[in-house]
Specification:
alpha/beta, abc type-2 transporter like fold, 2 domains, 14 helices, elongated
Length: 373
Amino acid sequence: MTRRLRRLRALIVKEWRSVLVDPAAFGIAVGAPVVLLILFVYGVSLDTERVSVGIVIEQSTPEARDLAGAFRNARYFRPVFFHERLPAERALSAGEVGGVVVLAGNFSRAALAEGEAPIQVLVDGVDGRTGRTVATYVEGAVAKWLSQRVLARQASMVPGAEVASRVWFNPSLESRYFIAPGVIALIMAVTGSLLAALVVASEWERGTMEAVLVTPAKPSELLLAKVLSYVGLGIAGVGLAVALAIAVIGIPFRGSYLILAVAASLFMLAALSLGFVVSGATRNRISAGRLALTAGYLPTIMLSGLLFDLQNAPAPIQWISHLVPARYFVSILHTLFLVGDVWGVILPNLAGMAVLAFSLLAVAVRLNRKRIG
């Protein structure tokens, strides 16, 4: 074994020992992924179910009661019935209901005569996404009720085509299936950058970095030892989070674990390199922690596609998002978990993430070499 390899092995052993005796570092690497995954998956939901909807029945007729029953039996609604419009509008203004369906007094007569009964839908638009969802649900429930009445009466308006819908990859439309893979990327981004920044900055504060620098080891070897040590520790934490997502939360995984390991290693390299850049620039534990948390968390949340569809973002924002490693990793995770090994998605994202990871590593090496020198 060459002298350089022996030095590198000794440095890696030193890094592992320093992590194992530091409860904070070990907790960030192993404990934080489990806690954050549970909090995000069960605390954040994009599903809209059991929405309170006010049903205004101005005249209680069989047709009006029949439509009201359609809302009562749907799992998406929790109907609240009113006899007048004004109390329902007040409930909507107070946030007690998410929408109001008004069945006018001539609803029954119009439904029997022409099949085009007057129905007014009022939706709370404060939360635009939820408002659009509620409006779509209400319109769908009314359209289904109308079509059932047409078929029951055997009218000439029976449509000549039947629409059969099928949802791929997530048939139950569970939002946690979409959130959990993205949360794993968020966990890695935050824990990787924060772990590297805090550990290296604390070494500068305690003066142990100067003691290591008097050894024959080169600055690049010091950084490589830290990268290899923390990549392994980060992958262990991610493996625990993935196992929890599959076995406990019930998220399906349809891809290759080998591809997941490669992608996770590249992304952890990028996160760690960001932390080394921060620690090399600050050398202060508090400043490094704040800056690493901001640099790791905000871009991942806003520019990775974790919660927001980047295709709906303005073109400049989409261009900027290509500088965020999490954008590529989130796409890979969604594909591996829900779809499978789709190489047309995986390979371009692996290439983009690799370019960013090694670019950040090069900046970290150059910055720390300057600061050491």
